Amino acid sequence: MKRTCALIAAAVLVAGCGGGQTATTEPEEGGAPGKVTLEWWHLSTSDPLKTIYETRAKEYQAANPNITVKMTVLENEAYKAKLTTLTQSGKAPDVFATWGGGVLKQQVDAGLIKDISADVDLTNFTTASMAAYQFDGKTYALPTDIGMVGFWYNKKHFEKAGIAEPPTTWTGFLDAVKKLKAAGITPIALAGKEKWPGHYYWAYLAMRIAGLPALQQAGTDHDFTKPEFVQAGQQLKALVDLEPFQRGFLGAGYSTPDGQSASVANGKATMELMGQWAPTVQADSGEGLGEDLGFFPFPEVEGGKGAITEAFGGGGGMALGADAPKEALDFLKFLTSTENHTKAVESGAVLPVLKGVESAVKDENLKVVAESLASATGFQLYLDQAYPPAVGAEVNDSVAELFAGAKTPEQVAQDITEVAKSESE
Amino acid sequence: MTTVTRRPEAETLPAGPRRRRRRGRPRNRLTIALFVLPALALFLLLVVAPILVAGYASAFRWNGFGGLPTDFIGFGNFTRLFASDIFYTDLGNLLLLIVATLVIQLPFALGIAMLLHQRIRGRALYRLVFFAPYVLSEVITGVLFSLILSPENGIANQLLGPLGLESEWLSHPDSALWSIFVVMTWKYFGFHMMIYLAGRQNIPNELIEAAKIDGAAGWKIFRYVTLPLLGPTIRISVFLSVIYTIQLFDLVWILTEGGPAHASETLAVTMFTLGFERAQVGYASAISVVMFGLSLVFALAYQRLVMRRDLEGATTAMGGKR
């Protein structure tokens, strides 16, 4: 019996891969509108967005009685795993949340995503918010959120350590870390177990040292061994060598009760490098800092080619499965309409992707994020989304090993290059 | 366990007549075929077919999308696997966990089982308590222990701190794998304890008494009477442990995701990350094939070399030869 289990375990992988292309049931053509069920997958498991989306689905069903919106809501990692399994079986939900970039591109290449270029009016969407969903001049998704990564910090801690202003240079940042340590405060919280929060550091350093064009070029020529990329690793190592992170950070999660977010929210650590959702998650996983929470952009590295005004981040969007009924497009337009987007922005859960909605941002810190984003001179999508999945995962993995002291900056550059090259063959 | 209990009666059955009867009349065979068919179909569909597909996929560079793979690379995935450091880390971790299980976990379970075989007050309660963790799902166990072993707020450090035995547990490359072993032991020693207890109860008391009359005592009785008679039980429990360790996934995934820096990664974790995070399904299939091979070789070799004696009775009684 146990041996059977062994066989099944070894075969589990394959279970996710079998099967071919199966179309979802098409609605009846012509005549009275047939009954249509829209499969809608998203990952907003926490309020306010969770409730907002539920309300949207109800409103839409009320206005279109022949349509049923069936929601599948999963947490981040579970969502990725379930979506990967489904797409590998040759299917996609009718409407589903995506981060765009390399992952979406792979799904587009597999013929799973509807090309909506001809059906949507993009004039109102900001350029930065659309970047992740357009390939070769075609549009494959509409954005619902856009933001950037930066340092969220505890103002009280800065005061206590005698740091007057948030640092704008890397040297200044390292000094601030030293001052915080000297004051007996843990400077930075990091979720080492989950890897993606760590890759923000390397990506930002690469942007600041090698410059945006170099990073984008590496995406096409698959060469991450340029000296600037190694330097990014060396600067990161300089930070790691200061031992600025909370105890046991290598095994810490992000939104767990003792994770990165909770450490900052409960005042145990001062800073975290995180995206626009950080305040929401902090309030959810810990006490929340309220007025004491501040935001500053990732500092400039002296002598580097990048500027402090260049932003790294991403948002979220909704794509349509290739076999989705035509009603799915209508639903997508409904979700991203100015009226509905404004409501979502007002709730503080997302940042504007539509021009003219900026004033709906209420929170002071989020205003700073929105303004930095609006005045950004360049934009880079998360590396683990911008590049193909294998390359993105290798960036996360290698950088995590740099944090653990198991890889040198040179090895990090080498290993990412190796995977990028082998993926492009 | 089943083999152990079945053996004595099986041996008493005469082999000859059964064998003849099994050949049976044609109508009988049809009935047999009809009864076997549904199970056989399921077995082929859910067990054999996936193995074949995994074997097939392992010869391709394939991201899992769209129909069948096309980019044939022969043994390319295997060459790549055998050249990767993570594969050897996985094998090293596997070996360490197996050795630790055999040297620490199973003897511990055996010791507890022998204690609980004695007439002691509340032994039913002890048995229940020690067996309880086995009933929990792996995921629940994992979540539970990630809270217990949290370096900052975990109860483990709060209890051990005053004794100077604090550890970063799952968060440090040096201690992660051992921490996982501790959790594994907590969850599974009760199961092995139960097997041993059952095996011990099958040993007739007369033998122990006879040994006592012959002047043996304590350790000697255990070493020369109990232990040899527990042989079949121990061999089965070793078998189950090793196969479990080769496939180990859930606990590790929940506790560490294989980290920090691959320190606690297992073959199954590598397979999962390659297949479902990196979309390298062909490469991941190659790992699953290696895992299958390891399990198969071990299972066959072990049954042939180690468990032969235990199985002989059962199989001859059924009229077949191995």
From TrEMBL, chain A:
Protein name (database record):
Extracellular solute-binding protein
- Write the lineage as a comma-separated list: Bacteria, Bacillati, Actinomycetota, Actinomycetes, Streptosporangiales
Keyword Signal on this protein?
yes
Top-rank taxon: Bacteria
Q: Which UniProt keywords apply?
A: Signal
Q: Where is the signal peptide?
A: 1-23
Automatic annotation (TrEMBL), chain B:
- Localization: Cell membrane
What superkingdom heads the lineage?
Bacteria
- What residue ranges carry the coiled-coil annotation? none
Question: Topology in the membrane?
Answer: Multi-pass membrane protein
* Residue numbers spanned by region Disordered: 1-23
Q: CDD domains of this UniProt entry? A: TM_PBP2 (cd06261)
Q: Where is the composition biased (Basic and acidic residues)?
A: 1-10
Where would you find the membrane-spanning parts of this chain?
Answer: 30-57, 94-116, 128-149, 176-198, 281-302
* UniProt keyword list: Cell membrane, Membrane, Transmembrane, Transmembrane helix, Transport
Record's keyword annotation contains Transmembrane helix: yes
Q: Where is the ABC transmembrane type-1 domain positioned along the sequence?
A: 91-302
Look up keyword RNA-binding and say if it applies.
Answer: no
The UniProt entry's sequence similarity note says:
Belongs to the binding-protein-dependent transport system permease family.
Q: How is this protein named in the record?
A: Carbohydrate ABC transporter permease
